[in-house]
Design goal:
Length: 208
């Protein structure tokens, strides 16, 4: 049995066509079902539905053989303990700094609200900027509006969320997409099954 960890929402939705090409169609829909383990049309494959930030943890410990996770999440988790064989090129966006549109450029010291604490620390350290990081779990865009931070580090896609809150994108930290990650022991123990799935995904991606 191969267990694949996926998060609900955009990653699940965008991964479905890829899985489908490999003959994997979930029997239940996570939008309506409360089940956390989804059987699929393939007897040898099941999906576990978890929070996006938990995917690397499940795969690292072998609770799932493989998973799909955003590069943002992998950077923050530290991905040395996982194989990352494929860029699936789904859920694409940018990790950026953003600030109030009237706020001055970032100077030598800055207060940053983000859920990407490690990534933000590293980014500002490399620029020689002293950053006081405030960890949030969501709605980062609110922080500059209420005086909690000078800027944020968050994901930007259309830019609509920033705009709706009077913020503007500033600097690009990294282009983000979702990656297939594989547990290192599973890669050895279930090599054939995993490799054939990787080949199928690769074939589908090459056609896009
Ligand atoms: P969460 O509940 O953790 O916010 P999401 O489904 O919103 O879960 O995000 C999962 C992944 O999708 C993120 O780690 C990121 O890689 C990507 N992502 C997040 N927001 C966007 C967006 N607005 N557009 C495209 N991709 C996104
Ligand atoms: C993500 C991200 C930004 C927004 C960016 O939030 O955290 O807030 O998308 O996308 P945009 O540039 O197209 O507006 P998401 O929709 O995932 O909401 P949540 O993570 O706070 O639930
Ligand atoms: Mg989100």
């Amino acid at each position: 049995m191969l267990t694949i960890a996926v998060s609900k929402g955009r990653i699940y939705e965008e991964a479905l066509p890829l899985l489908e090409e490999a003959g994997i169609r979930p029997v239940d829909d996570p939008k309506t079902s409360r089940k956390l383990i989804l059987q699929t049309t393939r007897d040898d494959v099941q999906l576990v539905i978890i929070r996006a930030t938990d995917v690397p943890t499940f795969v690292e410990y072998g609770a799932a053989d493989m998973g799909i996770a955003g590069k943002d999440v992998l950077l923050e988790h530290g991905a040395e303990s996982l194989y990352e064989p494929l860029d699936l090129n789904i859920a694409t966006c940018r990790l950026m700094t953003a600030a109030h549109k009237d706020a001055p450029d970032i100077s030598r010291r800055v207060r940053v609200a983000t859920k990407y604490v490690k990534t933000a620390k590293k980014y500002f350290a490399e620029l020689g900027i002293q950053a006081d990081i405030i960890k949030l779990y969501g709605s980062m865009e609110l922080a500059p509006l209420v005086g909690l931070a000078d800027c944020i580090v968050d994901l930007v896609d259309t830019g609509n969320t920033l705009k709706a809150n009077g913020l503007e994108p500033r600097d690009l930290i990294m282009n983000i997409s979702s990656r297939l990650v594989v547990n290192k022991a599973a890669m050895k123990m279930k090599h054939q099954a995993i490799q054939s799935l990787l080949d199928q995904f690769e074939k589908t991606l090459a056609k896009r």
